[in-house]
Amino acid sequence: MESNPTLRSRAWFGRTDQLGFIHRSWIKNQGHPDHMFDGRPVIGICNTWSELTPCNAHFRILAEMVKRGVYEAGGFPLEFPVMSLGEPIMRPTTMLYRNLVSMDVEESIRANPLDGVVILAGCDKTTPATLMGAASVDLPTIVVSGGPMLNGKYRGRDIGSGTDVWKFTDDVRAGRMSMEEYLEAESCMSRSDGHCMTMGTASTMACMVEALGLTLPSGAAIPAADSRRKRLAHLAGNRIVEMVREGLTLSKILTREAFENAIRVNAAIGGSSNFVVHLLALAGRVGVPLSLDDFDRLGSHLPLLVNLMPSGQYLMEDFYYAGGLPVVIHELRELLHMDALTVTGKSVAENLASPGATVCYNREVIATLDKPFQREAGLAVLRGNLCEDGAIIKPSAASPELLRHRGRAVVFESIEDYHARIDDPDLEVDRDSVLVLKYVGPRGYPGMPEVGNMGLPKKLLEQGVKDMVRISDGRMSGTAFGTVVLHVAPESAVGGTLALVENGDPIELDVPNRRLHLDVPEEELARRRAAWRPPVTPYTERGYARLYVEHVLQANQGADFDFLVGKSGAFIPRDSH
Ligand code: FES
Ligand code: MG
């Protein structure tokens, strides 16, 4: 076994003084023999396992598979926990804690004798949070996603995480589904290990990781319950040890080209709108210039190649059996930087070179470039007096007839106000109204929750209305759909024009021309602006939430903390004793 004096773990384990004794001796209480400290690469397994993060609840076994691979390749694996973020459980929103987890990950890696890192991530925010933290250290790093759940099965048909929840809920409110059926569907939807199996945020993040070159090929789509997921974890354990020996750090892979690839792939798969804030934040950590406009310029004119909910009808399990992301990347090859480097040490093109790697087994699920499911799929970035710093919409999940729309605002001043009034029979609203929700941005909520896809008024649902234009400074679940304008910046809580909208104001949405306009005279807006007072954001008197509201950037900058942008690298901190 080599003793590599350049490994940072040698600053702990390679010493013969008292501190070397301390660093080794306590670790040996777990039964590790002397030769584990002989200079082999020490690999941290960053585990977001938690029973409160159901999508990541199977990660202890996955970590064991990674360890097999690390030992086999001559490394020394040490697993460590970080804070986990369970999307369906945490309040007020997991997004509030994404930056906190990134700090946990960054400091945990740097403070410890690690030479390389394997990230185990799955549920929505666990992927960007861990990656942002790892990027600010910049060691060799590979991601193992936990994999999607098996398809939901309800009364003879496939149902998708999230997407069918929104549909069932509307059905109950419109009287089309009984409470008994609704409760039965719960158990039918989430019936195996894994994360949401729609093309929601978790699957989007897994695809982002694969498109960025940060996971072994096929890493995005293998179901959590498929034994090939464990095999992938084992192989990732092999590979990270080699990556340390090669000095293949994260920043060598996270280039501008990799980010452009991720944007294009995200468009073609109909990925979540949440992709935008997370990719912007990640780019900020590694110093790659990336702006909101890049998403529109690079992605919005790409066709939809993947027929998965919420934009389509299939689920991640079908996607894997159809060939998964390598097939999509191959279809897009003329549009991607195929020479971009990946964690395999090879380029994107080289990764696809093995026989059969790009064969599509089901054209109902993955289309060709010339016969796509939709012509234009990517996220559109809107501008106008209602969103000077931008807003986004996912046209593939919207109603075509609403993409150009003028309607009168029905304003909700908070999420509580919305819940209290949305089903009021006297609410002045019709199918042409534009629902506006304020104070759900990063600073305003706090944490920019997924409330942007507000459910429609009951009385309109009963009339058969299925979609309306909705606008907010919040986000929406990647599993959701509808003509929903999100991430309005600047947000209402910092005095963005959104804060000034009043009931009855005409609003114009024009997605083809990328415009969102509040049709109120400038003098009137100036009058309202002068009278506006910022609302009090709950929970922010002390503690983490206070840090959050004092430092969070706006959505168009990825909602990272101002002081976390950039990286400090993998320096070795001062002696501890
Ligand atoms: Fe965890 Fe959807 S709730 S991925
Ligand atoms: Mg979500």
Summarize the SSE layout with pairings.
Elements: H1 10-13, H2 18-27, E1 42-47, H3 59-72, E2 76-81, H4 95-110, E3 116-121, H5 126-135, E4 141-145, E5 152-154, E6 157-159, H6 163-173, H7 179-189, H8 201-212, H9 227-246, H10 250-253, H11 256-269, H12 274-286, H13 292-299, H14 316-322, H15 325-331, H16 348-351, E7 380-382, E8 391-393, E9 404-412, H17 415-421, E10 434-437, H18 458-462, E11 469-472, E12 484-485, E13 506-510, E14 515-518, H19 522-531, H20 543-551
Parallel strand pairs: 1-2, 1-3, 3-4, 9-10, 10-11, 11-12
Antiparallel strand pairs: 5-6, 7-8, 9-13, 13-14
The protein binds FE2/S2 (inorganic) cluster and magnesium ion.
- The end-to-end span amounts to 29 Å
SS summary, helix count = 20
- Strand percent estimate: 5-15%
By CATH, the architecture of the largest domain is named 3-Layer(aba) Sandwich
- So what's the CATH class of the largest domain? Alpha Beta
List unreliable stretches of 5+ residues: none
Assign the CATH topology of the largest domain: Rossmann fold
- Structure summary, number of beta strands: 14
| Average of per-residue pLDDT values | 96
The main β sheet shows up as:
6 strands, mixed
Which word captures the global form? globular
Rounded radius of gyration (Å): 24 Å
Strand order of the largest sheet: 12-11-10-9-13-14
Q: Approximately how much helix is present in the residues?
A: 25-40%
User: What small molecules are bound in this structure?
Assistant: FE2/S2 (inorganic) cluster, magnesium ion
